[in-house]
Amino acid sequence: MSRDAILITEGLEKQFGGVVAARDISVAMYPGETLAVIGANGAGKTTFVNMVTGYLKPSAGTIRFRGRDITGMSPRDTARSGIRRSFQISQIFPQLTTLENVIIADIAAAESGGALSAPALTGERMDAARAILARFALDGFADSIVGTLPQGVKKQLDIAMAAVGDPAVILLDEPTSGVSVDEKIGMMETALAPLKDGETTLLFIEHDMDIVRRFAARTVAFYEGTILADGPTGEVLQNDKVRQYVIGGAHA
Ligand SMILES: Nc1ncnc2c1ncn2[C@@H]1O[C@H](COP(=O)(O)OP(=O)(O)OP(=O)(O)O)[C@@H](O)[C@H]1O
């Protein structure tokens, strides 16, 4: 790709005691592209996302975002600089409404951020939160208590919350986990559509190869903490080693 990469990892490594969870992870991500990360359980996918988003400090290697070295930056500063994420287990507040959850995400993402005080709940912020819900086709659920919603809608909300503030890079950790096979494609279509029309770089970890084929132009395959293949999705999924070590072990 001729354009400059927006996020580059070089030689990332993470050790937990004697366990090497990630080794020599070098990936360049480009503005506007959608990548899937695949790999069997324990392959190092979440460890990679945790390092990129500041939740884990790499044992070695560097992370550069927009040309700047952000290795070891805190999760909070990483998020504010424009790299946001979702988690395998939703970080939403089930007892609050959809609108309230988006407002909290907006406050957390704000530059000056943090203060959950009355002045934070401005009309402007309410309008922005409503606009996000509309953009992600969640406006019909604005006043619903999140805990009562179907899993597919909760995961859609997760993605909408990661997109608050228009970050440059969004990393989604298993956005379809727990969503029924029938709902998955529709959920992903609805949730990703608003992100496809801009410069947002989207990376998602996924075990379902149908979802990978359908939504990711490029795929990075992890195996035992290393990158086994990185390229156009069709090619990676046909790669002999990927078929043997990754897809064979995936619960697709
Ligand atoms: N905090 C930790 N302490 C010790 N070992 C860890 C820790 N986090 C991850 N690991 C180990 O690192 C390896 C990679 O784990 P990771 O969670 O990144 O895998 P994954 O590919 O995301 O798996 P899954 O598909 O099950 O989510 C595993 O062997 C795991 O047990």
Automatic annotation (TrEMBL):
Residue stretches making up the ABC transporter domain: 7-249
Keyword vocabulary terms for this entry: ATP-binding, Nucleotide-binding, Plasmid, Transport
Listed InterPro entries: AAA+_ATPase, ABC_AA/LPS_Transport, ABC_transporter-like_ATP-bd, P-loop_NTPase
Gene Ontology molecular function: any one: ATP binding
Domain of life: Bacteria
Entry keyword annotation includes Transport: yes
GO CC annotation terms, alphabetical: plasma membrane
Name of the molecule in the record: ABC transporter ATP-binding protein
Record organism: Qingshengfaniella alkalisoli
The organism's taxonomic lineage, starting at the top: Bacteria, Pseudomonadati, Pseudomonadota, Alphaproteobacteria, Rhodobacterales
